[in-house]
Design brief:
112 residues, alpha/beta, 3 strands, 13% strand
């Protein structure tokens, strides 16, 4: 997961560099399965720009699903509940369900 903010983008670059070092050294099979844009606010120009940069740089590694900034998602941990148990109908919970479907679809497509 990556917030669509500047420092998260820099951190993502560092993570990719670390994964490459691990792949070259101790685990040749490691790879990033996908990148999830989270806490996304479409009204924020920077968030849109970072999202586009992620898509340009990582291509199909970026999930189509975007997790929005959502109060219900933020409240769930304070109640000791996962988002789906706290408010399954919230936009954030629905986005996570959509992500699960997307991950399943990608895995099934790889198996073919």
């Amino acid at each position: 997961p990556m917030q669509c903010e500047y420092y998260a983008l820099e951190g993502g670059s560092d993570l990719v560099h670390t994964v490459r070092k691990i792949k070259a050294g101790i685990n040749g099979g490691i790879e990033i399965e996908g990148l999830l844009r989270s806490m996304f606010d479409p009204r924020n120009t920077l968030a849109q720009q970072v999202s586009e940069q992620l898509k340009r740089h990582f291509g199909d590694k970026v999930y189509d699903t975007v997790i929005p900034r959502n109060v219900r998602l933020a409240e769930a941990p304070s109640h000791g509940l996962p988002a789906l148990a706290y408010d399954r109908s919230s936009k954030g919970a629905q986005a996570y369900l959509q992500l699960a479907g997307e991950i399943i679809e990608r895995r099934m497509a790889k198996e073919k």
